[in-house]
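Message: A physicist's question: would you kindly supply an amino acid chain plus fold tokens?
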Amino acid sequence: MDSDISSYITIIGVVLIIVIVLLVVIVINQQKQINSLRPRYGFLGKPLAVILMSTFAVGTLGLVYYSSNQPVQVEQTNADVEVILSINAELTGNTPREYRLSVTPVLGGIAWGANDTNKFNVYWTISNGTTVSTEDEVGKSYTNPSTIIKKLSAGQTTLKVTVFFNGKSYTKEKTIIVE
């Protein structure tokens, strides 16, 4: 029985040695193949420039596709509009001391903003020291400008105009001498 066990151990030993030798031979053979197949330049034998350009092209196409499928968000801001008022007072010539009073709001250097959608509300205060009168004009625009005709008393008259535009008010005063 000892001989049977020793023969099994011998057979197992020989088989293990053969397996180990075979594995060593396979590893050496594979190492030779790896060394012979190793690329001399680039990545897996391909030039790196082609791979980099291909990656860049695919990435760019992906980015363009992603950005074209995103909703566009538009934010609108209103800049502060500077309004400059110009008061005009001129004799009508019809009767003595009858004046044509007008105000011209200037937006961005252009009278009335040159846009008929700009609507202005105008409030006049006319005082000559003893009497004060008021006039108001609503919805004045580029095609419908502000003009009032008023008979003024002789002496110094103060014209004060307040213009309301886009929720803000703008005021200007002018003093004239009425003969």
Summary: The radius of gyration is 48 Å.
